[in-house]
Design a protein that fits this description.
81 residues, alpha+beta, four-stranded mixed sheet, 1 helix, 30% strand, elongated, DUF1150 family protein, DUF1150
C-alpha cells in the first residue's frame, strides 16, 4: 500500500512541472478571491491546483477541469488528499 503523502512532501521531488490537485472547501479560500462577482456556498467543494512548493496556482469547479488546465500548461498533475 502506498503511504499517504502530505502537501509538504512534494517539495522533495525535483520534477519540472509537477503539480498536485486536491479538494478544498470554498470557505477556506473565499478571503483570497478578489472578484466580487464570485458567489460560492462556503460548503462548496472546489479543486485547487498547487505547485510542488505548496503555492496555490488555480482553483477550478471540478477535478477534471483542474487536471486538463494543468496538462494544457505542460504540467504533470497528481491527485492528493
Amino acid at each position: 500500500m502506498m503511504p499517504m503523502m502530505m502537501d509538504h512532501d512534494f517539495s522533495a521531488f525535483e520534477v519540472p512541472g509537477l503539480v498536485y490537485v486536491r479538494e478544498v472547501f470554498a470557505r477556506d479560500i473565499l478571503s483570497d478571491i478578489e472578484d466580487d462577482d464570485v458567489d460560492f456556498s462556503p460548503d462548496q467543494v472546489l479543486y485547487a491546483l498547487y505547485g510542488s512548493d505548496g503555492e496555490r496556482l488555480a482553483v477550478m469547479l471540478d477535478r477534471e477541469t483542474a487536471f486538463k488546465a494543468a496538462e494544457a500548461h505542460d504540467m504533470a498533475p497528481v491527485s492528493v488528499q
